[in-house]
Amino acid sequence: MRVYWRYIPQAKNTFAALAAACEVHGYEIEVTDGPRPDVTIYSLNSINECVYRDEIAGTDCITIVGGPHASACYREVAEYADYVVVGEGEYTLPALLAAIEEGRDPPPGVATATGYTPAHHTVLLDGYPPFSQIKGFVEITRGCPFSCDYCQTPRLFGRCMRHRSIDEIVLHASRYLDVRFVTPNAFAYGSDGVHLRPDRVERLLKRLDGRRVFFGTFPGEVRPECVSEQFLELVTDHCANTRLHFGAQSGSDAVLRRLHRGHTVQDVLCAVDLCYEYGLVPVVDFILGLPFESDDDQRATLDLVREVTRVGRAHIHYFMPLPGTPLSKASPRSLLPETENVLGKLALNGRITGSWMDHEIRFFRHTPHL
After folding, report:
1. Can you give the pLDDT at residue 366?
2. pTM of the model
3. What's the confidence (pLDDT) of residue 227?
4. What's the 3-state SS for the chain?
5. pLDDT at 257 > cutoff 70
6. 137-364 CATH fold
7. Of the candidates 90, 79, 114, which has an alpha carbon nearest to the alpha carbon of residue 105?
8. Which fold has domain 3-116?
């Protein structure tokens, strides 16, 4: 049985991880630019799903679809795909391939048009390599203890943080000169995400000495309340990045509470000041157009954007409701004319990036911050 992966640029790291997991179980996955028999696999998010839906529905081969959109909307996706992998795929995907090859029913964790049985396992990161022949970023942590209303991460991977061991991280990082990590919060490595363990972060970074390590920047940012002198000393002593990336999301404490962010505006300001003190450029994410954002809330966010861009950079997102989240059915509110005016000027001056009008531009033209 031949198995193909539909090439989708935004799913490169997913392909690297799942190809490695399938290789462990004896399945080689080939890359294709279109559906091919016997089996073609897709990984979709909520922006690109509409691009590939008709292709999947119209193909004659067996189709398997996974990714954040498929996991949240598995009933809908199962109407046009043969199989839908819901949630983590390292164990489920190879088990599904074996079932297809042997003519058996799909394993738990796979939805079809006839029904769905939830998975009864949790992936241990050390059980699977982060990549094999196809190189990807090294995923060091999965899961998030916070439950931000707009975010799919805790809904996909749970609220219990799982970490790859230092030995395994070092082993796979040895294949790179420049090492970057996938994590919801780099400073939470080795901890439960709330009670941080800087000693374990230090142990990891010391083991990686001798390589150019980028820590706390794309694709593994940090949280503003976690930024401290101790962590910044570790970054400046052991890492190559000159920036630190974290999310503020709003300049209104009332909005942050509604989002269940778990930090305050003051936490963001303190993180920005500490970055400046340690010679790191803060790169701060913001979400505008949140459904319950008042005019004053939006102006407060704009004020915080201005404050951040005095010494750093801001990355602006326009709110997009994601399936499977508490805000999945919410609609974005419009931006104030003054907001659009200020953001336009800051963009022309190179102080902000992102898109606050078009989700596709934000998604397809995102540039990593190192």
Report:
1. 43
2. 0.91
3. 98
4. CCEEEECCHHHHHHHHHHHHHHHHCCCCEEEECCCCCCEEEEECCCCCHHHHHHHHHHCCCEEEEECHHHHHCHHHHCCCCCEEECCCCCCHHHHHHHHHHHCCCCCCCEEECCEECCCCCCCCHHHCCCCCCCCCCEECEECCCCCCCCCCHHHHHCCCCEECCHHHHHHHHCCCCEEEEECCCHHHCCCCCCCCCHHHHHHHHHHCCCCEEECCCCCCCECHHHCCHHHHHHHHHHCCCCEEEEEEECCCHHHHHHHCCCCCHHHHHHHHHHHHHCCCEEEEEEEECCCCCCHHHHHHHHHHHHHHCCCCEEEEEECCCCCCCCCCCCCCCCCCHHHHHHHHHHHHCCCEEEECCCHHHHHHCCCCCC
5. yes
6. pyruvate-formate lyase- activating enzyme (3.80.30)
7. 114
8. Rossmann fold (3.40.50)
Compute CA distances 203 → 170, 172, 234, 295, whole Å.
Answer: 11, 16, 10, 46
Domain boundaries, the chain: 3-116, 137-364
CA dihedral (357, 359, 365, 366) in degrees, to 10, reads 100
Q: What is the radius of gyration, based on Cα positions, of the chain? A: 21
Query: Phi then psi for 30, rounded to 5 degrees?
Result: -100, 150
The pLDDT-based confidence of 210 (bands split at 50, 70, 90) is confident
Look at 357 and 137; give whichever has higher pLDDT.
137
Residue 359's pLDDT band (cuts 50, 70, 90): low
User: To the nearest whole number, what is the mean pLDDT of the chain?
Assistant: 94
Short-list 187, 172, 242, 247, CA closest to 214? 242
pLDDT in tens, 231-247: 999 999 999 999 999 99
Task: List C-alpha distances in Å: 342 to 253, 312, 336.
Answer: 21, 16, 10
